[in-house]
Design goal:
Ribosomal Protein L22, Chain A; alpha+beta; about 230 residues; about 25% strand; 5 helices; about 30% helix; 12 strands
Length: about 230
């Protein structure tokens, strides 16, 4: 299913069979050249408009504004409220939430020309998408991302598959951290503090140190990797 406005394109993603039925995920295709002062962006509040204006590159401003409008659009459809009236706040660790009784949990990620939004009324969710260029020197980032068992699994892959294997692992870990609430800045749980590999089909094998969470890979456009995580 694809829902379109003049500014953004939202596509509901089919999820793996073992993902909880209460979770829904949408992929947003971003037009990074779109002006952000049109009617499609009317739901942005003054704070959000000021934040968009602080970006030095228009592409970054368009990415933020489009994802925020898409989030407001989806949350409005979920709650039956007007998109512009929704009050979005953030926890002490920066995790956004909808400030109203019985609000659904949600999570947002974007990279390059795509974004993801996950929503659930039953559990915490985390989602991550990363642009994964073949020229990326993944080994330089590996010490900050991989646990030892992750590293062994990736090194055992054919050379040509290791970069994509790294990005698959990285997005899964980021999704888990975001569902957990710590985020990349570090907290009780860190990227290297748990392992997600090996992967059985789309399902990641999280170690017990990750807590009561599960994660799966998501279908992503060519040149991207994506993952979804949730609290059990």
């Amino acid at each position: 299913m694809t829902e379109t406005t003049s500014a953004f394109d939202i596509h509901a993603l089919p999820l793996p069979a073992d993902a909880p039925a209460d979770i829904r995920v949408w992929r947003i295709a971003l037009d990074l050249t779109a002006p952000i002062d049109g009617a499609a962006y009317a739901s942005l509040n003054d704070h959000e408009r000021a934040r968009a204006a602080r970006f030095l590159r228009h592409a970054d401003a368009a990415r933020f504004a489009t994802m925020r409008c898409a989030l407001r659009y989806l949350l409005a459809a979920e709650t039956g409220r007007d998109a512009a009236s929704l009050v979005l706040a953030a926890s002490e660790k920066g995790r956004p939430y909808l400030s109203q009784p019985d609000a659904p949990d949600f999570n947002v990620s974007h990279s390059g020309a795509y974004g993801l939004i996950a929503i659930s009324r039953a559990r915490r969710v985390g989602v991550d998408i990363e642009e994964a260029p073949l020229s990326f020197h993944w080994r330089e980032l590996a010490p900050a991302v991989l646990a030892e068992s992750d590293r062994r699994e990736i090194e055992a892959m054919p050379e040509a598959a290791r970069s994509s294997g790294f990005f698959d692992c990285w997005t899964a870990k980021e999704a888990v951290l975001k569902a957990h609430g710590d985020g990349i800045g570090g907290g009780v749980l860190t990227l290297t503090g748990f392992s997600v590999l090996p992967r059985d089909g789309v399902r990641y094998a999280l170690t017990r140190s990750a807590g009561a969470f599960d994660a799966v890979s998501l279908a992503a456009p060519a040149g991207y990797a994506a993952a979804l995580a949730w609290a059990r």
